[in-house]
Automatic annotation (TrEMBL):
<dbReference type="InterPro" id="IPR050384">
    <property type="entry name" value="Endophilin_SH3RF"/>
</dbReference>
<keyword id="KW-0963">Cytoplasm</keyword>
<keyword id="KW-0175">Coiled coil</keyword>
<dbReference type="InterPro" id="IPR027267">
    <property type="entry name" value="AH/BAR_dom_sf"/>
</dbReference>
<dbReference type="GO" id="GO:0016020">
    <property type="term" value="C:membrane"/>
</dbReference>
<protein>
    <submittedName>
        <fullName>SHLB2 protein</fullName>
    </submittedName>
</protein>
<comment type="similarity">
    <text>Belongs to the endophilin family.</text>
</comment>
<dbReference type="InterPro" id="IPR004148">
    <property type="entry name" value="BAR_dom"/>
</dbReference>
<dbReference type="Pfam" id="PF03114">
    <property type="entry name" value="BAR"/>
</dbReference>
<feature type="domain" description="BAR">
    <location>
        <begin position="5"/>
        <end position="170"/>
    </location>
</feature>
<dbReference type="GO" id="GO:0005737">
    <property type="term" value="C:cytoplasm"/>
</dbReference>
<dbReference type="GO" id="GO:0061024">
    <property type="term" value="P:membrane organization"/>
</dbReference>
């Protein structure tokens, strides 16, 4: 009732401290940007949406995500197979072996980067959203309910005093 009356402009609302309002606004801003950064980083690390869904499901089921071959490693594998097919002694075969080995190292570095970014960057962001933000939201709801209770009590006291004053006049 108090909430509805406040929204309709029929009841007074106790305002929170300006510093506290600023903190709430900063918390909302932090949450929104953290979600955007988390999503975009996931897209950068795994551009394939179906692979991201698969990884998400493995993570939610507390299972280990199967190791996936990177595009660089796959290209290296094709180059090495082609070099063996053409013959490692031919100029084209030698070149394919050298470039394939470089691609394999690049693919391994990419895999390590993805693993490291996931552990050292994405995990803290997820921990904030799943832990700290939930706590902030819960405490905010509790504060809002307490404020509504306070305002409802203030309104009852005000009505009671008005009724007493009216009774004293008559």
């Amino acid at each position: 009732l108090q909430f509805t009356e406040e929204k309709l402009g029929q009841a007074e609302k106790t305002e929170l401290d300006a510093h506290f309002e600023n903190l709430l606004a900063r918390a909302d801003c932090t949450k929104n940007w953290t979600e955007k950064i988390l999503r975009q980083t996931e897209v950068l690390l795994q551009p394939n949406p179906s692979a991201r869904v698969e990884e998400f499901l493995y993570e939610k089921l507390d299972r280990k995500v199967p190791s996936r071959v990177t595009n660089g490693e796959l290209l290296a594998q094709y180059m090495t197979e082609a070099a063996n097919d053409f013959g490692p002694g031919t100029p084209y075969g030698k070149t394919l072996i050298k470039v394939g080995e470089t691609q394999r190292r690049l693919g391994a570095a990419e895999r390590e980067f993805i693993r490291s970014a996931s552990i050292n960057f994405l995990t803290p962001l997820r921990n904030f959203l799943e832990g700290d933000w939930r706590t902030i939201s819960k405490e905010r709801r509790i504060l809002q309910n307490r404020r509504l209770d306070l305002d409802a009590c203030k309104a009852r006291v005000k009505k009671a005093k008005a009724a007493e004053a009216k009774a004293a006049v008559t």
